[in-house]
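Why Signal transduction protein? Reviewers of the renewal asked for a concrete example.
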Amino acid sequence: MSKVLNFIKEDISILIVEDETVLAIGMEYSLQNMGYNISGIESTAQNAINHVRKKRPNIIIMDINLKGDISGTSAAKEIWQYYKIPIIFLTSYSDEKTIKKAIECEPYGYLLKPCKDDELNIAIQVALYKHNYFFKNIKTFNKNENLIKLTNNIEFHKGKSIVYYENNPIKLTGNETKLFEILCDNLGETVSFERISSYIWRDSLYDLGKLRTLIYRVKQKIKEDLIQSVFEVGYKIEEI
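Here is what the prediction returned.
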């Protein structure tokens, strides 16, 4: 176990997401004294997401209640969905509503302010141990052979069910993601309206208007003529 911890302290980078400057700087100082590397400090959820996209820290300590339009929990959901980076929440609140929101984000830890250095250190070690245990096949999960090239700019990762535009994930809804799943499982083939609708909505009768609206929304996000309509039959994505 000590070898694992020595490795962590030398090689793990931590992102601190905290809008209380004094607290953030104090935490940075404590973590550096423990031997960790600090990827950076961000004070808003959007900056945290941008930071993760560029620098890919190994673990994140995030305040739930951040200033701005996006909450810490919303940022955590997006980061976990697209990057699978473990997150420890830091908050002043322990009420049931806050805890429920936090749990929905699948955090690896939940600390109440003010927390002691040893509590923070233990939470980080436990989070990293759990993450490495549950994601010991993370290399397979990230392998490039799981990427399907759809155009010169767009790729679909089958393992993660994520669409990338120029290596950056495109934010899609659950139904939009399901649309890509079924079309990419049948590249070059026309998938009928009925089959697509059944896969996405689990309905025995399909609503063509609802499906067309979904296709339209996806095309607006993709901004490329990727999904082709086959007259009165269905949709398809061509192989390249």
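The domain at 147-237 is CATH 1.10.10.10 (Arc Repressor Mutant, subunit A). This is the kind of structural detail the renewal will allow us to pursue systematically.
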